[in-house]
Design brief:
This protein is of the alpha/beta class and 308 residues long. The protein has eleven helices and twelve strands. Strand 7, helix 8 and strand 8 form a beta-alpha-beta unit. The two termini are 51 Å apart. The mean pLDDT is 88.
Length: 308
Amino acid sequence: MQLDQIIAFDRIAREGTFSRAAHALGLGQPAVSARILALEDAIGGSLFVRGRTLRLTALGESFLPYARRALEVLREGAEASRLAQVGERGSVRIGVLGSLAGGLVGPALAEFVRARPRVECHVRSGDHEFLLQLLLDGIVDVALTVWPCAGAVELTPIFLFREPVVLVAHPRHPLARSKQVTRDEVARLARPLLRLRWWQSHDPRISRLAEQSETSVEVAMETGRRLVASGVGAGFFARTYIAEELARGTLTEVPVRGLALVRDSALVRRRHSGPISPALAAFIDLLRRRTLQPDNPTRLKPARKRSA
């Protein structure tokens, strides 16, 4: 059974005669008749009662809806393939650090979905180690992770970026009363100093401040944000994670004299994982552009690309 035979059968059923069907298909009538004979041979019976008027046999009537469904599925498949070639269909599977899921990927995904509603999007968030496992297992195609990362021989960066890690406190916290504070004041006044792991391991300068402080607590990033928003303690946060709170004024960035912390991250993929689909390429381009927008409160500074 061949596609051109099914097309001929459907067209004859629509037109009512072999001659009109042949004209509609741009074929000679003998060619159309040959296709129907071959189709009847494949099915095992006559599809039409031939006489002064042409009508479907019981076998033809039962086969027709399936033939039309098959043609419709093929048309849908062809359209989906065409759209996939231009990034309008397909899938985007991305893993992202929890600290970047809301401030960076969330707005980018909203813009992407509005522009390409037919693309299936799957976003998984978690810590660095979890994302690497998703990527190496093939569950996600790309992942936003801390960079550089140990054991990255199987990964290659698509683009890198850098964001500040800043001291944050409630506007009424003692540290927020000064335009700039010293490290000694951070250790003495944070009460407690919240230690949050924005890197694969704590930055040594944060560890020294924690040792110097009489009170320090290691907490998850969301717990830390809740504590600081409640006026309890102060901590160093990746700016993307608390950009909205800083913009609203519900949290305050406190400059620390002589201390400039950054976090490098990268969008990475597995080496030798095949070509990037048009849909994923469009999302990657959108994500990259969002990291560079001057009016974006979560704007990031591009980091120099390093070898994986």
